[in-house]
């Protein structure tokens, strides 16, 4: 397991370029096995999740290679095989192989997915969608076994009881080659869903309505890649750097951003009094001075993303008065609180109403803490940059899972950061 060592006190300045969206990439790679030809992705982030997904592909005789942001995937000789449980358990998004394998073979057997422990994240809506299309789903200890009869999957009307990005994508992956017409209602609207649908449609899929709450899919027999799919910029990475630059920057220019994907987050920074300069595909963050406290409530897109409530927390420490966060998506996403408090932060969790109260804190001090999951780790990383002295973040693999070339990017911004391998 890796450690991140941060020597604080070096204010940030310069330029940083955002990589491709993690939340698109981890669905696009499983989606690639639906193709009847090799596929190529550009703007692929260099994160641990990508390498774990490549291990899973290899177990199915799907060749892949990755260099300089380009990922090639060749599923033409795919075979059905047991997927490596260690890789499956290392990331939540491995559940997309359920929909992808079901769409490819009409059956799937997948170890129950792992990933970040941020509270209950059931897959009942995924299973509901599969069953509606004619699949039989059985839980066998830690495995999910999905089968169909000789007729295979068929189109269906699916209503998701809760807005779920994962269930929406899995239903699309299963339906894209199914016989007939599928309608997904109460679908999630995230930009990453539009990205995945764009990839599939460019190969010949017939999907309409991505970005709305009703998605319609007409099943097709083949999917043939005609061009390289360029992955959209990562709005969560962009938001993390926006928070970081606002909290401890002397002028940072963030490139490869789609501001429309961050409107709810940007609105909160403006409300705090940060004078952002928003351009077509970049945002300049000047040095901030007096900051206002704010209230945040996470919501499904286009609301404030749950993935950004932890990265914005160190910035809220600089605001006058108390700021409040209520995470309606994952109320138990609180692993960062105790770790930041070890550094001197004044943050408390109100169990009664599920609110996080962040009070003004003048100084943070470096210490040894642990990254319990990706976004908690990002929050701690920002706090470490702001802190006096040295911060050691254990379990830094959780940060590396979600942030592209993080050490290089922070170094370019004048930070002193390194990753060391803990052999113990």
Automatic annotation (TrEMBL):
<keyword id="KW-0132">Cell division</keyword>
<feature type="binding site">
    <location>
        <position position="307"/>
    </location>
    <ligand>
        <name>UDP-N-acetyl-alpha-D-glucosamine</name>
    </ligand>
</feature>
<comment type="pathway">
    <text>Cell wall biogenesis; peptidoglycan biosynthesis.</text>
</comment>
<dbReference type="GO" id="GO:0008760">
    <property type="term" value="F:UDP-N-acetylglucosamine 1-carboxyvinyltransferase activity"/>
</dbReference>
<feature type="active site" description="Proton donor">
    <location>
        <position position="116"/>
    </location>
</feature>
<keyword id="KW-0131">Cell cycle</keyword>
<feature type="binding site">
    <location>
        <position position="92"/>
    </location>
    <ligand>
        <name>UDP-N-acetyl-alpha-D-glucosamine</name>
    </ligand>
</feature>
<dbReference type="InterPro" id="IPR001986">
    <property type="entry name" value="Enolpyruvate_Tfrase_dom"/>
</dbReference>
<dbReference type="InterPro" id="IPR036968">
    <property type="entry name" value="Enolpyruvate_Tfrase_sf"/>
</dbReference>
<keyword id="KW-0573">Peptidoglycan synthesis</keyword>
<keyword id="KW-0961">Cell wall biogenesis/degradation</keyword>
<comment type="function">
    <text>Cell wall formation. Adds enolpyruvyl to UDP-N-acetylglucosamine.</text>
</comment>
<keyword id="KW-0963">Cytoplasm</keyword>
<feature type="binding site">
    <location>
        <position position="329"/>
    </location>
    <ligand>
        <name>UDP-N-acetyl-alpha-D-glucosamine</name>
    </ligand>
</feature>
<feature type="domain" description="Enolpyruvate transferase">
    <location>
        <begin position="7"/>
        <end position="410"/>
    </location>
</feature>
<dbReference type="InterPro" id="IPR005750">
    <property type="entry name" value="UDP_GlcNAc_COvinyl_MurA"/>
</dbReference>
<dbReference type="InterPro" id="IPR013792">
    <property type="entry name" value="RNA3'P_cycl/enolpyr_Trfase_a/b"/>
</dbReference>
<keyword id="KW-0808">Transferase</keyword>
<dbReference type="Pfam" id="PF00275">
    <property type="entry name" value="EPSP_synthase"/>
</dbReference>
<feature type="binding site">
    <location>
        <begin position="22"/>
        <end position="23"/>
    </location>
    <ligand>
        <name>phosphoenolpyruvate</name>
    </ligand>
</feature>
<feature type="binding site">
    <location>
        <begin position="121"/>
        <end position="125"/>
    </location>
    <ligand>
        <name>UDP-N-acetyl-alpha-D-glucosamine</name>
    </ligand>
</feature>
<dbReference type="InterPro" id="IPR050068">
    <property type="entry name" value="MurA_subfamily"/>
</dbReference>
<keyword id="KW-0133">Cell shape</keyword>
<comment type="similarity">
    <text>Belongs to the EPSP synthase family. MurA subfamily.</text>
</comment>
<protein>
    <recommendedName>
        <fullName>UDP-N-acetylglucosamine 1-carboxyvinyltransferase</fullName>
        <ecNumber>2.5.1.7</ecNumber>
    </recommendedName>
</protein>
């Amino acid at each position: 397991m890796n450690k991140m060592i941060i020597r604080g006190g070096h204010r940030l300045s310069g330029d940083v370029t955002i990589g491709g969206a993690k939340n698109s990439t981890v669905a696009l790679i499983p989606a690639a096995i639906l193709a009847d030809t090799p596929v190529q992705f550009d703007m692929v982030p260099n994160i641990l999740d990508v390498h774990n997904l490549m291990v899973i592909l290899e177990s199915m005789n799907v060749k892949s290679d990755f260099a300089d942001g380009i990922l090639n995937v060749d599923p033409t000789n795919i075979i059905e095989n047991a997927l490596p449980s260690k890789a499956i358990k290392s990331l939540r998004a491995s559940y997309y192989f359920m929909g992808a394998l079901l769409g490819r073979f009409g059956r799937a057997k997948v170890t129950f997915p792992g990933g970040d422990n941020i509270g209950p994240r059931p897959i009942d809506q995924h299973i509901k969608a599969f069953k509606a299309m004619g699949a039989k789903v059985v839980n066998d200890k830690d495995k999910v076994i999905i089968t169909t009869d000789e007729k295979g999957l068929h189109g269906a009307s699916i209503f998701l009881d809760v807005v779920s990005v994962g269930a929406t994508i899995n239903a699309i992956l299963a339906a894209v080659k199914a016989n007939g017409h599928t309608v997904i209602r109460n679908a999630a609207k995230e930009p990453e869903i539009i990205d995945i649908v764009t990839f599939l449609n460019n190969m010949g899929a017939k999907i309409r309505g991505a970005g709305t709450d009703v998605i319609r899919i007409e099943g097709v027999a083949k999917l043939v890649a005609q061009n390289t799919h360029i992955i959209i910029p990562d709005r969560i990475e962009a938001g993390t750097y926006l928070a970081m630059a606002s909290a401890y920057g002397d002028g940072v220019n963030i490139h490869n951003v789609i501001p429309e994907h961050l409107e709810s987050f940007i609105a909160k920074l403006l409300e705090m009094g940060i004078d952002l300069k928003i351009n077509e595909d970049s945002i300049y963050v000047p040095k901030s001075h007096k900051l206002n406290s704010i209230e945040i409530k996470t919501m499904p897109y286009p609301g404030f993303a749950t993935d950004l409530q932890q990265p914005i927390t160190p910035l809220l420490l600089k605001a006058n008065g108390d700021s409040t966060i209520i995470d309606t998506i994952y109320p138990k996403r609180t692993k960062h609180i105790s770790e930041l408090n070890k550094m001197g932060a004044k943050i408390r969790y109100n169990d009664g109403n599920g609110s996080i109260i962040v009070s003004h804190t003048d100084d943070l001090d470096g210490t040894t803490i642990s990254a319990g999951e990706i976004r908690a780790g990002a929050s701690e990383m920002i706090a470490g940059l702001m802190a006096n002295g040295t911060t050691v973040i254990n379990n830094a693999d959780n940060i590396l899972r979600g942030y592209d070339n993080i050490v290089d990017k922070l170094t370019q911004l004048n930070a002193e950061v390194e990753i060391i391998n803990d052999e113990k």
